[in-house]
Amino acid sequence: MRSSTPLIVRAELPHGVCFGQPWGISLDGLLASVLWHRRKADEAARGEVLTYDPRAIPQDLDLPLARCTLGQPWHWMCTFAHTIPATPHPEPRTRSSRTDHADLQRLSASVPSTVTDARGHYRKRLIPAVATVTATATWRAVGDPDQIRDLLVEVTEIGKYRTSGEGRVSAWRVEEVPDDDWWSAGHEHMPGVLGRSAPAECLFDHPGITHGGRARTAVRAPYAHPSRHANHAHLPFA
Ligand SMILES: [Zn+2]
Question: How many angstroms separate the CA atoms of 219 and 196, rounded?
Fold first, then answer.
């Protein structure tokens, strides 16, 4: 039996976290990634390979979160990560990327005799990312606390550059706050501050909310898929 109650989810981050966007990552994306990996493992155990087809409309995974159906597309009742940085500005981090020439030879039967590192599509490049030095990340949500705990225990790193040690999570805490307002727990970092991307209809009753502007953007996982995008959606305040 699934229950739904307002929650605060907190990740302890001993080494800070690196996000590729001005705002934090979504809780629904994290939960969906665990379910997707579990499904992949089940298929692998049967000798099958589960693949993601970006041309198909993705099936919605059964996340232990309530849904907000005020706008189109609908979204899960949860925010993006909220952080309180320890430094006045985010810290730039840079990674370098170089084409694996031996890999090119394996992938293609006709590779030119020289593939230069200095120019062209396969050149060596520097990739900047912004790291937030912070001790915790928090999300608000409406959902089933036990099922959320069960999924998050499998998430040991969040954000970008996890293989370099960024975003390691030392502990997850899921706290029930039954007196919190449901709409607020599904949309706001704190009263009056938008904490997620949201279709315009979500904010009709909250015209004074502080947000990060408006754009065509995704409102639920998988965030990269066009079927999850809303026109003139409000962006989170970051
Ligand atoms: Zn909404």
Answer: 8
